[in-house]
Amino acid sequence: MGSRTCDLVGQVDPAQSFDTQALLRYASANVIGFPPNPSLFTISQFGHGQSNPTFLIEVCSGTLAKKYVLRKKPCGNLLASAHAVEREYEVLHALSTHSVVPVPKVFCLCTDSSVIGTPFYIMEYLEGRIFVDPMLPDVLPERRRVIYRAVAQALAGLHSADVDIVGLGNYGKRMNYCKRQVERWAKQYLLSTGEGKSRRNPKMLELADWLRQHIPLEDSSGATAGLVHGDFRIDNVVFHPIEDRVIGILDWELSTLGNQMCDVAYSCLGFIVNIASESIEENNGFELTSFPDGVPSLSNYLGDYCSAAGRPWPIEQWKFYIAFSLFRGASIYAGVHCRWIMEVTVPDALGKRLIPSLELHGRLSKENLFSLSTLQLRQA
Question: Whole-prediction pTM value?
């Protein structure tokens, strides 16, 4: 069935709370059609997979009831270039205005941190379904194949967007994406690990060196360049409430221009590894060998993508793209774990300990986050 978007919200995390009246004043002045003096104004927080805290705004005025989504930077010290809600707003505005790529409409961007503490933007709320578990346990087998085909087609449609026509021609550098990304995530990993932080795994450094030596030639030629989502997976898309079609692609924090094969490989990790916390000890997070009936094989999923995108298969140096996806994922997890360590060990002004929400593939414990950042390297 999938989780309804409205069922993924709960109470606001105290560590991410903000001045709701300041938000109300700002939204009333900057969002067209936002009720200025609502009889009801409530804020709840989405709890699934949000590195940038995301909130549901519900507002009523008389018989008028509306829902919006607010997405903001987290509080605290952040790694350079991380949590760029300004870039999310830019790409969503361009795609919703000038393309048929399914994304929520955006209404305003606030870069003034004095309003609610960090920059944020407000966008359209999409009523639909999100499939948190990529194995689709509550879906009939015959519909699983249709759902995955829709995911592959959504990625192909995203990649088909003409960035020059939609106004994203300067959204990033098109050439040498993999080369820059390897260096970026290697640097982020070093910043996130070491003394007083997560334990540094030497296999990460070995893998970074291997990646540097195997950059695909197409990366420098721009042959596979275009819009890159950066975090495309099944639980980052919203499906229609009852139809098996994608109505929205979410979480554009890592989007840019670059080598689109990195997007394809990252979207395939669910066919290759299982990092669900309950499965880590069972299979070390690696080498999925069986899938529920109806979930396509990796080759079938790639076939659907290539057919929709008009690209041939096989892709040369596929091993590089998968290895890079694992490397980047491990670096991200290390960064999340590092931030957790900093927040639970640095007292706030009242001497209290900060306990943030750990929201990456669901709510995870400190131990699980560390496991996820290292298990992906055991067979690197």
Answer: 0.85
| Structure confidence by residue, pLDDT tens digits, 56-105 | 999 999 888 999 999 999 876 554 555 689 999 999 999 999 999 999 99
Cα(47)–Cα(50) distance, integer angstroms: 7
- Quote the CA–CA distance of 275 and 285 in Å, as a whole number: 5
CA angle, 146 then 149 then 154, to 5°? 125
Task: Say whether pLDDT at 273 is over 60.
Answer: yes
Residue 121 in tokens: 């933007």
CB burial class (10 A; 0-12, 13-18, 19+) of residue 293? Answer: exposed
Residue 43, phi then psi, degrees to nearest 5: -125, 130
Q: For the segment 225-264, what is each residue's pLDDT rounded down to a tens digit?
A: 999 999 999 999 999 999 999 999 999 999 999 999 999 9
Residue 305 · residue 264 · CB < 8 Å: yes
Query: What CA–CA distance (Å, rounded) separates 237 from 348?
Result: 36
Cα 315 to Cα 112, 175, 311: the distances in Å are 44, 18, 9
* Residue in this structure with the two tokens 């694992």, named with its chain if needed: 326
The pLDDT of residue 283 is above 80: no
CA 274 to CA 279: how far, in whole Å? 7
Nearest to 159 by CA among 39, 274, 249: 249
Q: What is the DSSP string of 128-189?
A: SEE--STT-TTS-HHHHHHHHHHHHHHHHHHHT--HHHHT-TTSS--SSHHHHHHHHHHHHH
Phi first, then psi, for residue 286 (nearest 5°) are -125, 165
- In sequence order, what are the residues at sequence separation of 6 or more whose Cβ sits closer than 8 angstroms to the Cβ of residue 199? 193, 370, 374
The upper half-sphere exposure of residue 270, i.e. CA atoms within 13 Å in the direction of its Cβ, equals: 25
What is the model's pLDDT at position 109? Answer: 98
Closest to 357 measured CA to CA, from 336, 373, 371, 334? 336
Helix (H, G, I), strand (E, B) or coil at 140: coil
Mean pLDDT, the chain, integer: 86
Nearest alpha carbon to residue 316 among 246, 233, 221: 221
- The DSSP output letter for 287 is -
